[in-house]
Design brief:
Macrophage Migration Inhibitory Factor; two-stranded antiparallel sheet; Tauto_MSAD; Tautomerase family protein; 3 helices; about 130 residues; about 30% helix; alpha/beta; 4-stranded mixed β-sheet; Tautomerase/MIF_sf
């Protein structure tokens, strides 16, 4: 699951394009299938979204929640792909994008009535 935060005036107009770009990166780097898009957008009022100096109101935070198993090199490739593709396709400079990957063991995930470590039919590999 991916959660995207930003100031609503900047985030709302680009939601679909940003979702497409993020999912393209997830597919190309992690091998995620087309139908495994789980994005949640949190548009905030400017007074509810404090961010570091040197950033613009386009500042966007992307939190990626995933099962453990991807190598550090794979995770770094994903982050770099996001910076590059978001800049070229959505127009947000890397200085205004923050990416955090949060990993949890498979047993901490629950979907389709089972835990992640019980799932044997994933259409993608977690260990990449």
């Amino acid at each position: 699951m991916i959660v995207i935060y930003g100031i609503k005036e900047h985030l709302n107009p680009i939601k679909a394009q940003l979702s497409d770009t993020i999912h393209q990166c997830m597919q190309s780097v992690l091998g995620m299938p087309e139908d495994k898009r789980a994005h949640r957008f949190i548009p905030l009022d400017a007074e509810d979204f404090y961010f570091p100096g040197g950033r613009t109101p386009a500042y966007t935070v992307i939190e990626i929640n995933m099962m453990q198993g991807r190598s550090p090199d794979t995770q770094k490739a994903l982050i770099k792909a996001l910076f590059s593709k978001i800049e070229s396709e959505v127009g947000i400079a890397p200085i205004d994008v923050e990416v955090t990957i949060k990993e949890q063991p498979a047993h901490c995930w629950g979907f389709r009535g089972m835990t992640g470590d019980e799932a044997r039919d994933l259409a993608y590999s977690v260990n990449v």
